[in-house]
Amino acid sequence: MPQAAKDTSSLSAQQQRLIPVVILAVAALLWMASGVVRSDDTTSAEQPSDSPVFTVRAATIEANSVPIAVYVRGRTKANREVDVKAEISGSLVKAPAKRGSNVSKGDVLCQIAADDRHERLAQAQASLKSAQLEYDGALRLKRDGFQSKTDIANKFAQLQTAKASLKNAELNIERLSVRAPFDGTIDKRYAEAGDLLTAGQACAKIIELNPLLISGQLTEKDLHRVSNDQTAEVHIAKQMPATATVNSISKRADDVTRTFEVELLLENPGLRYRAGITTDIYIRTGETKAHRISPALLQLDDKGGLVVSTLNKQGDHFLVQRLPVTVVKDEPLGSWVVGLPEQVQLITAGQEYVAHGQIFILYTSDADDDRQWVDLGGRRIMKKKE
What are the residues whose beta carbons fall under 8 Å from the beta carbon of 226, sequence distance 6 or more? Predict the structure, then answer.
């Protein structure tokens, strides 16, 4: 046999003897690999049973009818105020009452000394009587043909002048008393007894606090929702709410703030409320279905909008849903929001730690309004195999 053929036959025999060895090596590698994967799966499936279980609390809440209102921040003002001024000059013999005193329409605020005004009144009365006699006598002479029309006209003019003088003297007597023009309260005193008042000088400032005026600013977006005679709930200095009525709305926006002034009237018997107090105004524009929740449950989404976390039943489990809401009214007991279903499971504890789409199951239900839920996400509640 040639040498080349002999070498080829020897190499083929060696390769055939190596084939079983290679197969065994590959099988061993596959067996080892399967053991590693199985070990990982077993470890993954057999999580420790003492892993922390994440829970939340939720309560079922239902919508209720609540008045919808436009909120305006304002302040109280006097309905009317006026500086009561003297109409004649003279020395003051009676000063106004102390500041804060209530007065009625027609009450004397300041009294001016009469001086010789009563004598001038008597003189005017006498002059009128004399002028009347002369005019009557001229009329009798006219009937007898002894009085011309010109003389009659002069006597009539003198009579009218005497009447005007008497009227002026009577008015000067009345003007000695500076009186309140309406029921109100003395807000300022401008004069004291002994002061010399001149015509046009103020004696006192009077303000009217019943009804009380409340003024606020409406934005452009709320302007169309408010009209005259609508009722409003007002909170003055954290006192019990009262009911006011829209009295007027400005036809022109403020040049700086671009808002419109709205004024409301509030009945104020007993002058319980004062002027100048900051007031929260809720002008009622209708009713809607809303849920009252704690403001602490409100969250912000990625766009800065308000949302709340809820649990939505999906078969035998519950899905976390973050629903957008709008606050329509704030009260000491909570905020009223719209945007939720009529009845909803609201997460009341743990909402800041859950994500939209997370799955929970009912864990305990000792109380309908305080249920506990457990997270099914990941493998945190899986137990070891027995």
Answer: 70, 218, 246, 249, 262, 283, 285
**Residue numbers of the domain that contains 125:** 86-204
The CATH number of residue 269's host domain is 2.40.30.170
Strands 242-249 and 231-236 turn out to be: antiparallel
Q: Is the pLDDT of residue 360 over 90?
A: no
- Three-state DSSP at 35 gives helix
Rounded Cα distance between 331 and 306, Å, is 18
Amino acid 305: pLDDT = 86
Which residue type is seen at 302? D
* Position with higher pLDDT, 370 vs 157: 157
Tell whether 181 and 218 lie within a shared domain: no
Is 260 inside any structural domain? yes
- Asked if pLDDT for residue 60 goes beyond 80, the answer is yes
Q: How is 186-203 classified by DSSP, letter by letter?
A: EEEE---TT-EE-TT-EE
Query: Strands, E, within 168-241: which ranges?
Result: 177-179, 184-189, 196-197, 202-218, 231-236
Query: Beta strand pairing status for 317-324 and 242-249?
Result: unpaired
∠ CA 307-313-318, nearest 5°, is 75
CATH number, domain with residue 305: 2.40.420.20
CA–CA distances in Å: residue 352 to residues 55, 61, 290, 307, 310: 12, 19, 23, 11, 12
Token reading at 344: 């909803």
